[in-house]
Amino acid sequence: MPIFQDEKCDKVLSLEEALDYFSAIDISNRDALLGGAPTLRALSNNRTFLARLIAEELKEADSLQKKNQYSAQVFALGGGRNFFMRANFWPAAHDSMYQASGPRPFFYDLPHDHNFDFLTVGYYGPGYLSDFYEYEYNDVVGYLGEIIKLRYVGREALPQGRTMLYRTSVDIHNQLPPESFSVSINVVADFSDQLASINQYMLDLPSGMITSLGNRTSLPLLCQAAAEIGDEECMDVLDYIRVSHPSPRGRVAAYAALARLRENEAQQIWTDALADPDRHVSVQAELRLAHL
């Protein structure tokens, strides 16, 4: 279960003060991030800063949130060393945005874990709901169709002033609409190597089946493109990636591309993959060999 805190806080901070605090701590240290809960709660006591920022964005509607790389649900607030801060908007099921777009743009009923820690606080409204599960990351190979053993640990909401620390590759949530429109504020750890190398899983409930991988990396797609239109130089690079790349998912993609480019050598290529030290590679090699 993510770590919830409900301690009362009367302090009020500006956005700039909160950003300065999180810039000064070691975001990679989970305890240090959790120690920022009072700071985030103090920011949530500032009842004017977000409305002011929204008004400023509306004045520039033609270039609205142009640096925001996430969905329209997310409102970027700034960031610092290895983190960024954002506000998330959570419409209720009866709100017009939900009625027009459905649940998917707001990640409702899309069970998933995260490959980063984040600290969040309820800023407005009763808060979105989440059904929470836990799993053992090291027990998971990480291929599509794999069944993960999930432990249901409860349902919680994030009302105004409540903080939650969500843990990388431990917690799984299935987010549900709030009773009425709500807003949360997140501090998100942002380490590019971690995001590219640690699998994020989208799941089916109640089976626990992995339905997709959510990593922010283009390597698997580039490997697939190489498999379709690659030349000898592409094959040389893929040969290097399959044995040297730090990401197991990247190595699998390179093996798959080579097996496609050298169809007459596919069995040997996947046999070589059996020796990979990571189960994400070796188990998928076994599965591929079984279907050759």
CATH superfamily of the largest domain: Jelly Rolls
Return the average pLDDT rounded to an integer. 94
Shape designation? elongated
So what's the CATH class of the largest domain? Mainly Beta
Q: Please tally the helical runs, counting DSSP H or I stretches of 4 or more residues.
A: 11
- Helix residue percentage: 25-40%
* Secondary-structure class: alpha+beta
In short:
The chain is α+β, with helices and mostly antiparallel strands and 292 residues long.
Structure notes:
The chain is of the alpha+beta class. The chain has two domains: 211 residues, Jelly Rolls (Sandwich); 65 residues, no CATH class. Strand 10 and strand 11 form a beta hairpin.
Looking at this protein, list some descriptive labels.
22% strand; 11 helices; 3-stranded antiparallel beta sheet; alpha+beta; Jelly Rolls; elongated
Strand and helix layout:
Elements: E1 3-5, H1 15-24, H2 30-34, H3 37-44, H4 49-59, E2 74-80, E3 83-90, H5 96-101, E4 118-124, E5 129-134, E6 151-157, E7 163-166, E8 171-176, E9 182-189, H6 192-197, E10 201-204, E11 209-213, H7 219-229, H8 232-244, H9 248-261, H10 266-273, H11 279-290
Antiparallel strand pairs: 1-7, 2-3, 3-9, 4-7, 4-9, 5-6, 5-8, 10-11
Helix pairs in contact: 7-9, 8-9, 9-10, 9-11, 10-11
